Amino acid sequence: MINNEKYSNSRMRQTIMNIVNNQLHGASSPEVKKTYHRLCRQGYNDEETRKLIASVLESEAALVLKHHEPFDQTRYVAKLRYLPRVLA
Q1: What is the pLDDT of residues 23-80, one digit of tens each?
Q2: pLDDT digits over 57-73, tens only?
Q3: Rounded to 10 degrees, what is the CA torsion of 69, 70, 71, 77?
Q4: Could you tell me if 35 and 53 are in contact, meaning their C-beta atoms sit under 8 angstroms apart?
Q5: At CA 83, angle to CA 79 and CA 87, rounded to 5?
Q6: What is the pTM of this model?
């Protein structure tokens, strides 16, 4: 039997990574692409860069769920600019 919490966390992580991949390959998120290329130029590899971007998206998703507020694109972009600094 699968641990539901572990499965949910794994599924959430996979969903977040899928969103990041879609943002990198789509035309609707130029800030994500800029962040990706900037971090790669700074020496982060593909996987590390995607995980850093995903951490920002995950923190935004947590705020949406916790405070029942809409996704804030401006705040998301501002946080992307702070990468690779650790997010609080």
Answers
A1: 999 988 999 999 999 999 999 999 999 999 999 999 999 999 999 999 999 999 999 9
A2: 999 999 999 999 999 99
A3: -90
A4: yes
A5: 65
A6: 0.85
Residue 31 near residue 42, CB atoms below 8 Å: no
Cα distances (angstroms) measured from residue 45 to each of 10, 37, 50, 51: 22, 10, 9, 10
Contact criterion met (CB below 8 Å) for 29 and 19: no
**What is the SS3 string spanning the chain?**
CCCHHHHHHHHHHHHHHHHHHHHHHCCCCHHHHHHHHHHHHCCCCHHHHHHHHHHHHHHHHHHHHHHCCCCCHHHHHHHHHHCCCCCC
What distance in Å separates the CA atoms of residue 44 and residue 84, rounded to the nearest whole number?
Answer: 9
